[in-house]
Every structure is written in C-alpha cells, then in structure tokens.
Known about the structure:
Elements: H1 3-23, H2 29-44, E1 60-63, H3 69-78, H4 85-89, H5 119-138, E2 150-154, H6 156-160, H7 162-173, E3 179-185, E4 188-189, E5 192-193, H8 202-209, E6 212-216, H9 222-234, E7 240-245, H10 268-277, H11 293-320, H12 322-332, E8 350-355, H13 356-368, E9 374-378, H14 382-385, E10 404-406, H15 411-424, E11 428-434, H16 442-451, E12 456-460, H17 478-483, E13 489-491, H18 496-508, E14 514-517, E15 522-525, E16 542-545, E17 554-558, H19 562-575, E18 580-584, H20 588-592, H21 596-602, E19 610-613, H22 622-625, E20 630-632, H23 643-649, H24 654-667
Parallel strand pairs: 1-2, 2-3, 3-7, 6-7, 9-10, 9-11, 11-12, 12-14, 13-14, 17-18, 17-19, 19-20
Antiparallel strand pairs: 4-5, 8-15, 16-18
Amino acid sequence: MTELENRCINTIRMLSADAVEKANSGHTGMPMGAAAAAFVLWARFLKHNPNNPDWPDRDRFVLLAGHGSMLLYSLLHLTGYDLPLEELKNFRQWGSRTPGHPEHGHTPGVETTTGPLGQGFGNGVGMALAEQYLAARFNRPGYTVIDHYTYGIVSDGDLMEGVSHEAASLASHLGLGKLIYIYDDNRISIEGGTDIAFTEDRGARFKAYGWQVIDVPDGNDIAALDAAIQSARQMTDKPSLIVARTHIGFGSPGKQDSPGAHGEPLGAEELRHTKENLGWPLEPDFYIPNDVLPIFREAVAAGAAAESRWQERFSEYARAFPELAAELNQWLAGGLPEDWGVAVPEFPPDAKGMATRVASGKVLNAIGVRITNLVGGSADLAPSTKTLIADAPDFQKGAYQGLNLRFGVREHAMGSILNGMALHGGLIPYGATFLVFSDYMRPPIRLAALMGIHVIYVFTHDSIGLGEDGPTHQPIEHLASLRAIPNLTVIRPADANETGQAWIHAVSQNSGPVALVLTRQGLPVLDRERFPSAEGLLKGGYVLEDPSDGQPDVLLMASGSEVAIAMAAATQLAEEDILSRVVSMPSWELFDAQSDAYRDSVLPPAISARIAIEAGSPQGWHRYVGSGGRVIGIERFGASAPFQEIYEHFGLTRERVVRVAHDILSRS
C-alpha cells in the first residue's frame, strides 16, 4: 500500500468519524473497519457515473449494513456525486441528504434503503437476478448492452438474520455469478464479540450453499482485496463471498475491536487519539488532503467515459435491433405496451362463482403474454395462488429468460428479492403466498412502501373462508396490519371483474407497492349490465346497488367475499321495506385518495346508519361507519371446519347484518 492509498483510506475513516462525532449519533466502527475494502472496490472496480447515478448499465453497490451509512456517504462525496461536504456535516439532521440509514431516492447514488439487517442481502440478489434476465432477453452476439455486477458489503448481523440464509441459498441455485459480496468480518456486535451467539464457520456455510468463498485474512491488505475481487469477477456461474477479516473502529486506540465502536461516537478525546494514531491532522474536522480528492474524483471522468462507450454500443444495437432497443428503453422508463389493458378478460355473470385467486390467475396469464417484463412467482404455492404463467419457461440457472420464478419456501427472501428486482429497473416483479404468511414478508413490504417502488404482492387464502386448514392459516389481523403501512395500496376485490381491475391498477401505477388480497372460495361474478362497472374499483369504493325509489335508510359496505353478504342482506331488508345502499370498498387507500365530493357521494354524511362487513379484524373500519354505525368483523382466531360453517358460527351472515341494521335504525 502506498502512502497516498493509505491517506485515501484514512480519509474515508476520518470523514465518517467526524460526521458521527458532530451528530453525536451514528456508527463509527464499521466505516473505519471496512474503509480499505470499500476503497479498493470503488477506486478500482465499481463501474458508475457520479454525474448520472441512474445510468442503466452501472454496477450496483449495496451497503447491507445500513448503520454504517457514513461509509457510503463519504464515498459518494469523494467520488463526485451531488452530495456536498456540507451534507456530511449535517449527518442525521432534519432535512439533510445524509439520514441515519441510507434511503433510496433521498440521496443520489444510494441504490436501496438499508438498515433492517439482512434485507439488503436479498435486494442484491434481486438486482443480480434482474441483470441476468435483461441480459438474456436483450443481449445479442456482438451486441452486449446489459453487462454489470452487483456488489455489497455484508456485516455479521446480516449473516445472522434468517433472510440472508434464504437469499444466499436461492442465489447459488440460480448461479448468479455477477453477485459479489464482501463480508466485513469484524466479529463484534452490540452486546460483545460475535462468539457469544454466532460461532458457525461462515465460509463453510456459504461453500455449502454453493458460493465461491475467498478468504482475505487481513482486511487492510489492499493487494489481497484486489486479487479477491478479480477472482470473484472471473467466476461466472457462482456468487462470491469475500471473507475479509477486519477490525471495527480500526485505528482507535481505546475502541478498536470493541462494542464501544459499534453504535456510538468515539468521543472527543478518543477521536483525537485516533487521529494521532493514524497520523491525521487534528484540525480541521472533515479534512480531505489535497492529493486525495483527485484520486477519488477520477471516478467522474471514468464514469462518463464508460457511459459514453455504452451509449455508442447501444446506438449500434438500436440500428441492428430497433424493436429490441425500443422495448428495452420502454422497460427502463417504466412504460407499458400500448393497449395492454385490452388483454384483461371480462368475466360473464356466474351465480355459482369463481374464486378471486382463480380470476387473478386468468388475468395474469392474459396480460403476461403482453407485458413480458412482468416477472415473478410464489413461495412454493403457485398451484394454490395461481401465479404461474402457462407455457412460459422457468427462470433457472443458465435459462435466464424464464418468466416464472421459483422462490421455494422462502417468503422472507422473496420479499427482499422482489425489492431488488424493482430497484434495478426494467422489471415489474410480483410475488405470491397465502395472506397469513405476509407476516414473513412484512420488513420488505414496509421497505418497498418506504422507497415507493413498484412491487406487486398476490396474497391468497385471505380469510376464514379458506376453511379446514384452521386458525394457523386463517388471517384475522392481516388486512388491518397491511393497511397500517403508509404508501402500501391494499386491494381486496369482490368478484372476478373487480380482480381484473385490481391488476390494471397494480400494473399501471408505479408510486408504491400494491397488495392484491384474494379468496380461496368461489364468489358470485356480478352481472355488470345490471350493476355498475367494476372500474369503480379504481376509486377504491363505489356504489354497487341502490334502492330503486327513495333515499337509503342504511349503508352496507364491505370488501371482498363479504360484498355478497351485504347484497343478500340488502335484498332481505328491501323485503322488510328498509332501503339499503351497498358499497363495495376494495381499497381504502384508493378511496381515501378521491375528492371529498366523491367520497361523500358514495357515503353521504347525512346517512349515519352504516354497517361494515369484513372477515377480519374490524380495526380501521370505524372511520367509515362513524359513531352511529357498526362493524361486523372477527376479533378472535379462526377454526378448522368447512368455511360455510365458520361464517355461520362467527356471525358473518345475511341474517346478522339484517339484525344489526334493525338495531341501528331502532336507535336513530
């Protein structure tokens, strides 16, 4: 290592330490320990353009250990991204572009939001998967337009979290050779040395998965790190884990290799000792040596040149393959084929009915033929969730053009991989499982909503209506739990045609994730010549049935399978000279986004007699029924029996709705 290279690495360390110290908050140790590995990767290998952070063929870099965010912010500033030094000085402050954990869309150059450990592991797998799919679809002999790596720095905590096990297993199965992770093996956690809870041979574990594992005994040996990354890049059919033995808080006389460097500032005195120990000037803070910045800023010219070469290749490609080039541009821009929506089938009336999961499968197969970047699968539940595209190949090792992903029984990883696919760009990913298992996916769902990325979740078996499998598989609190996540749109359609409209919304919007919540049991397919168009779903709630004469006495609102119960109750109430309005409410989020005038037209404020019916927790419905209304829901776990009997025992029946309507009206 030359003296200049050493100063470059120490610049990363000291910028990070100064920022954490000024904020009096944050993580100093990880950036100091992993600085050498980060320097080698960013200075010698990473293909990126600081002046165009979204260049499609850039390498992706994921800082899995988001608590070490100052490592990334230091690199972004030094290499010339639009992140001024003043932003580093405002680390963790209100309005700064340097939040406590990296946030995608908030800071230029941040590829994904990390912080919850392990999530970034799956994100990187998803990015590498997307690269392989796009390369297989678009590259042609002599014309390579998609060709980049996904790199990441992984912490002990990431490898402890279960999601990393699932994602690592699948990455190896798929042979994602362009996925390269550097393991920051510093062996320290918040509570002490990792040997108090984490003693397996991590390298052997990854070898067992089928990864290439490369050991670097000294994480400050930049020649060894360089050789390791070179070796990883040459491995084309296996992901690589570079195990670099590092030292948390490197250079700190009092805190190196101790938990004290993990999640707090060094402290003024220790920071001074550290600077003295590393031969660093005590003043000024945030010091960048004059000969260091030009080394890092070489990334600006190198990145521009790399993108220029790619643009030249793409221009040649577009001349040779104009249709493919247009399609790739459309995908990368988030566009859709013209008139794709006409492929959505219209379902004829059917009193016997069709499960909305079955209708969803038919819609998916119809649009999947036209939208060939709609790529996804299920957690080993495709026959039940109806999420296989018929006659399309699987995405497998060496067969990367397949539309159908086989995630295996790995909901945790599926969620984080979907996020990585969406973040990469070019694909619209979807993933499916039973609604009750959305619990396994909650962290990545929350992160998808936080990032505002385009991911579609298909959650079937949505209630006690799944029947005999019993309470372990019957969701109760799950709808309320998902609806509580900001920027997640939850849609629970009432019949097959509403399901088609739900898919139209899920595919066409791109401002956040969408969860489609679907039944196992059959539901009547409504006659849309008699009832309003299912396009009303796009407004979240709409009047499905109104009295032929006069104003309604009571409003009956429901989602999904309970809309049929509301309609049956309205029929019985009409026979008793009580006028009812039935409102289908498939999506609160879409309904709440409508104008006050529209919402009042559907739920007139003058009508206080209101009943909401849903086979789940009643939590949240009270905002719509008001103080004079009632919610018929479920506030206990389910039971194992045929679903018709469960509905009867739990009071989700036409008769109960009628009784409650009489009770409300008698009190008004």
